[in-house]
Amino acid sequence: MESTTQRNSRIANEDAGAHSAFNHAIDFFRGLATYEITPSIGTSFSYKQITPRGQLSGWAKTYEEAVAKVEALKNADNCNGYTRKQLGSLV
Fold this sequence. Notes:
Elements: H1 4-29, E1 34-39, E2 45-51, E3 54-60, H2 63-74, E4 78-79, E5 82-83, H3 84-87
Antiparallel strand pairs: 1-2, 2-3, 4-5
């Protein structure tokens, strides 16, 4: 059973994650995102979308696949479940 302290901590962590996702989406739609692709162990690659207040990351088997995923991130109409229209005047 979860104690009150554990519950409060869990809720605080969930809230922090939600705020981070929201702020990352705002930064993305403001055009503040940068991207990087780095080699990983073996032949795979990691890719990241980085903004001042968050990041999204993933893995790809090939460099070409990583480039395609970065391009998809750059051109997305949705970031962390938010659209530009939903964020309205914030972006």
